Amino acid sequence: MLNITELNTTDSDFWTKLQDLLAWESVSDDAVFNTVNGILKDVRKRGDAAVVEYTNRFDRMSVGSMTELEIPLARLQAALENITPEHRAALEQAAARLKSYAEHQLLNSWSYTEADGTLLGQQVTALDRVGLYVPGGKAAYPSSVLMNAVPAKVAGVPELIMVVPTPDGEVNELVLAAAAISNVDRVFAIGGAQAVAALAYGTATVPQVDKVVGPGNIYVATAKRMVYGTVGIDMIAGPSEILVVCDGKTNPDWIAMDLFSQAEHDEDAQSILVCPDATFIEQVKASINRLVEEMPRKEIISTSLRNRGVLIHVQTMDEAVKVANYIAPEHLELSVANPREMATQIRHAGAIFMGRYTAEAVGDYCAGPNHVLPTSRTARFSSPLGVYDFQKRSSLIDCSAEGASTLGKIASILARGEGLIAHARSAEYRIKD
Ligand SMILES: NC(=O)c1ccc[n+]([C@@H]2O[C@H](COP(=O)([O-])OP(=O)(O)OC[C@H]3O[C@@H](n4cnc5c(N)ncnc54)[C@H](O)[C@@H]3O)[C@@H](O)[C@H]2O)c1
Ligand SMILES: N[C@H](CO)Cc1c[nH]c[nH+]1
Ligand SMILES: [Zn+2]
Predict the structure, then answer these.
(1) Looking at residue 25, what is its pLDDT?
(2) Nearest to 328 by CA among 242, 214, 268
(3) Does the structural domain 5-26+238-367 have CATH classification 3.40.50.1980?
(4) Structural domain boundaries of the chain?
(5) Where's the active site on this chain (predicted)?
(6) What is the mean pLDDT of the chain?
(7) Which tens digits make up the pLDDT trace of 255-295?
(8) Which of 102, 117, 121, 166 could be a cystine partner for 189, CB 3.0 to 4.6 Å?
(9) Strands 119-126, 110-113: parallel, antiparallel or unpaired by DSSP?
(10) Cβ(139) to ligand 1 under 6 A?
(11) How far apart are CA 277 and CA 260, in angstroms?
(12) 46 and 236 Cβ atoms separated by less than 8 Å
């Protein structure tokens, strides 16, 4: 019998208990921080040698040099040619759907001209070189190759450097085939904090990138957090999460399996059910206990549900919405009669899956939206990985002589108000007599 935390919004300490279960600190502690900090510093100092050592240690490999960890493009192409036609078709279909969706996100440059001839606008450009983190510790993620690379390509990033751990030296053929389909430029069989560090700081072999994107476990998420500023990052896309809001009228087996679908990623993953019907919560518990026995990843699912899972009894559906908005989950399933109406009340979620027929799992692979999503309540201020993450904006200002004179007068007054006389005089030179 799995012991999953149960909370009721009528409990006097409900919000405190919920906060504790959601906290970043519940999956990360000083030990993780110190380990990652040490790895980042060491890779920065010793480059390839440190990356090789950490890879041998954490991924149980025995390579002698970094060059052994680069996977040649010909090897990716060979994988694409050797996988089954079903696998190839599924990867290509998923890639095509992601591309169609991503094309809607493309930002374009814009400008307008004022009456005196002054032009103002915004010029959008793609990043030069991006690092794609593809997880690979406890499962292989060909889908994450596509999710990272497709929007980058749509944005027009010229150079994509992919990293993926290959524990025990086992390379996943679908991951390589997905990399071939996505036209990534270089692939290194490295993972964890050492891979993030190699991308962020560059080594003799791994080129330094401008931004590191992609999901990963707590070590990867912590490393991305810490290299931010040296490079850009997309978001904190850490251990997976699902929150299911159910009105009690969906098949409880479906809900149990939806909760498992994220719990099976990682012991640190988090699955939450929010429901106003106490009897239904009991039915889902029964389904969980029966179905978990059939799961190949039973141990990971059980640990995740036991340590981080929560079954929340709310009093009303309005309260369910309030709880969901507070949690700001990576994935929110609205398994209710009126999902589209309820979705209008959702303000914080990485992705919203509407209706009893929309399993979160289709979003993980092929619906079209990206599966790289903010976790640990960061959906309050972060968005799904998208084309916009691979683009940046420069402001454009082109003053006409008349515009320079008009704006120069305003700037002069404000600059003198700030006591910045060079600013004032620079603007004043352009004021017409
Ligand atoms: N939020 C998202 O968008 C999203 C999408 C897909 C997957 N995920 C998550 O990505 C994660 C994938 O995790 P994973 O472990 O399978 O692969 P991973 O590639 O993220 O992590 C594996 C690496 O972690 C490092 N590591 C493991 N134990 C360590 C230790 N004790 N000390 C130092 N480093 C250590 C190793 O370097 C190893 O190569 C899961 O948590 C999954 O839920 C999130
Ligand atoms: N659920 C993950 C995002 O949290 C994505 C994924 C990939 N493969 C299966 N699932
Ligand atoms: Zn998943």
Answers:
(1) 76
(2) 242
(3) yes
(4) 5-26+238-367, 30-233, 399-428
(5) 330-331
(6) 97
(7) 999 999 999 999 999 999 999 999 999 999 999 999 999 99
(8) 166
(9) antiparallel
(10) yes
(11) 20
(12) no
